[in-house]
Amino acid sequence: MATITVRVSDEEKVFLEYMSKFLGISLSQIIKEYTLDELEDMYDAKVGDDALKEYRENGEQALDIDEVMKQWNVK
């Protein structure tokens, strides 16, 4: 397993240690889990934003839900 060093201020270290005890997980787990979760959320948002931008630039037309339901004979 690879090792990454992260530099934090003294105050940040105190907070991270507190959260580690508060959540009952190791400091490494906190940094790994919550960093990866945030990055995954950022990735998902960026992919969605890029897709929407491409959709708009290509002049695509969206249908509202009522139109879709009519097309598929859904009541």
Automatic annotation (TrEMBL):
Q: Keyword set for this entry? A: Plasmid
Q: Which InterPro entries match?
A: DUF6290
Q: What is this protein called?
A: Toxin-antitoxin system, antitoxin component
Q: Which organism is it from?
A: Mammaliicoccus sciuri
